[in-house]
Amino acid sequence: MFTDSKTISQALQESTVALAPVSETARLDSEVWLAYVLGVERPWLLAHGEQELSEQHLADWQSGLQRLTGGEPLPYLLGHWEFYGLMFQVSPSVLIPRPETELLVDEALAWLRTHRLRTPGRAAADVGTGSAAIPVAIAANEPDVTFHAIDISPDALAIAQTNVSQHGLAERVHVSQGDLLAGFDAPLDLITANLPYIPSARVPTLTVAKWEPLLALDGGADGLELIRVLIQQAGRLLKPGGLFLEEIDPELEDSVEALARQQWPTAQVEVLADLTGRPRLLRVQLEAAK
Ligand SMILES: C[S@@+](CC[C@H](N)C(=O)[O-])C[C@H]1O[C@@H](n2cnc3c(N)ncnc32)[C@H](O)[C@@H]1O
Questions:
Q1: CB neighbour burial string for 116-150, b if at least 16 within 10 angstroms, e if fewer
Q2: CA-wise closest residue to 122 among 170, 166, 172
Q3: Residues of the chain where predicted confidence (pLDDT) is lower than 70
Q4: I want to staple 83 with a disulfide (CB 3.0 to 4.6 A). Which of 18, 133, 216, 264 is the partner?
Q5: Is residue 248 classed exposed, middle or buried when 0-12, 13-18 and 19+ CB atoms within 10 A define those classes?
Q6: What pLDDT is attached to residue 94?
Q7: What is the pLDDT of residue 225?
Q8: What is the structure's pLDDT at 213?
């Protein structure tokens, strides 16, 4: 499939064709991968299309391209990925942060900005934090919030801690191991979560399950096993007037809404749609104290 010498344009053309069956963004992926191999920015590639790749660059480019055509996600090859305009370290121990999760960050920031308290220092928890993309994106954009970033996976927590430190947020985003919010007893103003929500039977049918951690995907028999427990725990921990945000699988909309209404009969419960119009985010605004 590959020849011995290649210019940048030829490499880009070849990889775009090779990646088309596995990626909807084959040309973009090709540019990102080659730019990474050469240690340059993408626009540089386009201005230097006639330049020939060195032997080493060609070998690196080819071995990565083989992994990509085998379906391995580009962020795992790069070791980083962008979320909410910020760069995050990623590895196969964490879910690759998804654009649809930016809705959760938008909602949290909008709420934090409009619900200023008389006493500063809002307390928040991000449950199932993975790469810590959610608490880092929120805390980097809103100074008056402190997060507990919790995950059950020690490998994910190592990546989370790196990201928190790299963004200079170690004083306001505290990474710790936990099984949801078990054993947690401090009252919270805000709870955010993107817990595993794929029903177990559907997990093996998904391409992502081949590469991304099962622990980040499998939501149990009905997809709700963890979310159900977290809603109960949040019922105990969330302060009056607090906010609960949980990303969901669109198919879980009705059952998740019912769970939330059962837990918080007087709260404002809604499911917000993502940019593609699919139900994506459970938002529960608790009633303020009387
Ligand atoms: C869907 S991933 C979300 C990662 C990250 N919050 C994001 O949005 O990119 C779910 C995360 O929940 C974690 N997790 C699974 N079961 C958990 C549990 N019982 N308690 C805490 N975290 C859990 C997984 O390790 C994984 O990192």
A1: eeeeeebbbbbbbbbbbbbbbbbbbbbeebbbbbb
A2: 172
A3: 1-3, 117-119
A4: 133
A5: buried
A6: 98
A7: 97
A8: 95
What is the Cα–Cα distance from 147 to 154, expressed in whole angstroms? 18
Two tokens, residue 45: 């590639």
Q: How far is the CA of 250 from the centre of ligand 1 (A)?
A: 18
What is the Å distance from ligand 1's center to 185 Cα?
20
CATH of range 91-285; options 3.55.40.20, 1.20.1740.10, 3.40.50.150, 3.30.43.10: 3.40.50.150
**Residue minimizing CA distance to atom 6 of ligand 1:** 129
Q: Which two tokens stand for residue 119?
A: 């006493």
Any atom of ligand 1 within 6 Å of the Cβ of 188? no
pLDDT tens for 183-214 read 999 999 999 999 999 999 999 999 889 999 99
Residue given tokens 């947020």 in the structure block: 169
Domain ranges of the chain: 8-72, 91-285
Mutational test site, ligand 1, from 151, 197, 247, max ligand atoms within 8 Å of CB? 151
Residues in the chain: 290
Over the stretch 226-276, which tens digit does the pLDDT of each residue have? 999 999 999 999 999 999 999 999 999 999 999 999 999 999 999 999 999
Instruction: Kindly report whether the global pTM for this prediction surpasses the value 0.90.
Output: yes
Report the SS3 class of residue 121. coil
Q: Supply 227's token pair.
A: 């979310």
